[in-house]
Amino acid sequence: MISISILGTGNVAKHLWDTFSKHKEIKVNQVIGRNLDAIAYYRNKTKASSDFKSITDSDIYIIAVSDDAISTVSQFLKDKKGLVIHTSGSAPLNELPSNLRTGVFYPLQTFTKGQPIDFKEVPICLETKVEADGQLLHKLASLISNRVYFVDSEQRKKLHLTAVFANNFSNHMFHIAHEICEKSNLSFDILKPLISKTVKKIETLSPYESQTGPARRTDKGTMQKHIDLLKEENHKEIYRLLSRSIQETYGKEL
Amino acid sequence: MISISILGTGNVAKHLWDTFSKHKEIKVNQVIGRNLDAIAYYRNKTKASSDFKSITDSDIYIIAVSDDAISTVSQFLKDKKGLVIHTSGSAPLNELPSNLRTGVFYPLQTFTKGQPIDFKEVPICLETKVEADGQLLHKLASLISNRVYFVDSEQRKKLHLTAVFANNFSNHMFHIAHEICEKSNLSFDILKPLISKTVKKIETLSPYESQTGPARRTDKGTMQKHIDLLKEENHKEIYRLLSRSIQETYGKEL
Asked: Which residues form the DUF2520 domain (chains A, B) (predicted)?
């Protein structure tokens, strides 16, 4: 049995609670957060409080708050003997007090309110100062996920950065496509099989090999027609920059 | 039975041949293309030739060549009575000779050599000058796909443009993520569940609703850290432009 205190009530905290609470080998002792509305969700489920001074003894304290607040919350754990971990992709391990047993438990996934997550497929990136704590954290992570990795602070920063490209920026590309569809009375549904295929392709090919389109084949005529069709200056600028970047990737002259 | 001449030997032509040849109600009379290596593939399968003067009578002539060559190839069909169609997303219907029965058959998918396609899920966008030809084309398209749409030339141009954002540019985002992973000794596989989830989310939410990340929440600290982490000027520029575009989308001050 691993006992846990969850500190924080945002998306990550909530998804972790939902998953942990289903496992017999994990006991969530309490959830603590400043947000009273968010805390209300846990009232009849576990001990829930907005008072960070009420932290009880647990094997692991999970600080699942915004990066800016990690250090502040960790001050309430000064005299704790359990393992203190944060869940941030970009904060380093040493954001936590050096005199404590500390670690990182970074679930690499995009969490949305109200959308359930199957943690089994969520990569969980771990880091600890000492090996014994790594084993404890690995035990916890393996209970909920089949994809557990050890990733140090430098690598994790890079990973968080790549997630912005792989998720946030690709989603923004979908958004621009959606916007243009709406303005042209086209259903965005027509594009969905193409989007699915784009992702299926990179299961077997690298994105480098998968690339197609006018920029890939230096089809200047089509690129110019597309830029002329775009109405927003911002979209033109994105089209130009990404087309140039694709052409540079394949070593074509501009 | 619908009889067909395929004119062209590129990816689209080949994928159409592979699909058509499996259907009893479709008969491919011939495949014609200039590329002798490509034509060799069809030698023992159907009548294959590199001589455009050898075009026989068919119900439908499918011009599946690059946009620049559509007009040239259509000159060989001057005296034909069948329906002459092209498969381009960006060329208008009137790229084909006005004295012929003409149409467009645009499969909205990304075709890669050697990767088989399940046409049932490929949206096929049709356009014809007259309704009777529309019915013929709809019959052909429905034999191979469950997603058949009528889309006029103006809309199709927009659709082709949105496909560049939805497929080509999102794939380039995956490529940049892949590049950074490689340079940091991280397996790109760690990112694959995140990428899958990005696409699954937009089955039920709009991309507007799905957006997460530092730009979405105007987390300037993280954005600056990411820009500092990026080594290539080109990647910095893309990060800045797309983050600005996301912030503008959500009406935040810059």
From this structure: 122-246
Q: Are residues A160 and A145 in the same domain?
A: no
Same domain, B29 and B93: yes
Query: Counting Cβ atoms within 10 Å, is residue B43 exposed (0-12), middle (13-18) or buried (19+)?
Result: exposed
Are residues A97 and A51 part of one domain? yes
| H-only helix segments in chain A | 11-20, 36-40, 67-74, 131-144, 153-163, 170-183, 192-204, 207-210, 220-229, 233-249
Chain-chain contact of B207 with A171 (C-beta, under 8 angstroms): yes
DSSP conformation letters of B202-252? HHHS-HHHH--STTTTT-HHHHHHHHHH--SHHHHHHHHHHHHHHHHHTT-
Q: Searching chain A, which residue's CA lies closest to the CA of residue B107? A: A194
Low pLDDT (below 70) residues in chain A = 252-254
- Judging contacts by C-beta atoms under 8 Å, the chain B residues touching residue A125 are 190
Could you say which of A167, A180, A196 has the minimum Cβ distance to residue B213? A167
Question: Which residue among A129, A151, A173 closes a domain?
Answer: A151
B127 and B169 inside one domain: no
Q: How many CA atoms lie within 13 A of B155 on its CB side?
A: 19
Separation CA B124–CA B145 (nearest Å): 7
Pick the residue of A157, A159, A165, A199 with the most B CBs within 10 A to test the interface with B by mutation: A165
pLDDT attached to residue B111? 79
- Specify the number of domains making up chain B: 2
CB B71 within 8 A of CB B90: no
In the predicted model, residues of chain B with pLDDT beneath 50 are: 253-254
The span from the CA of A105 to the CA of A128, in Å, is 9
What pLDDT, on a 0 to 100 scale, did the predictor assign at position B252? 52
Q: Is B82 helix (H, G, I), strand (E, B) or coil?
A: coil
Helix (H) or strand (E) holding A51: none
Question: Which residues form the domain of A217?
Answer: 156-249
Task: Give ipTM to 2 decimals.
Answer: 0.88
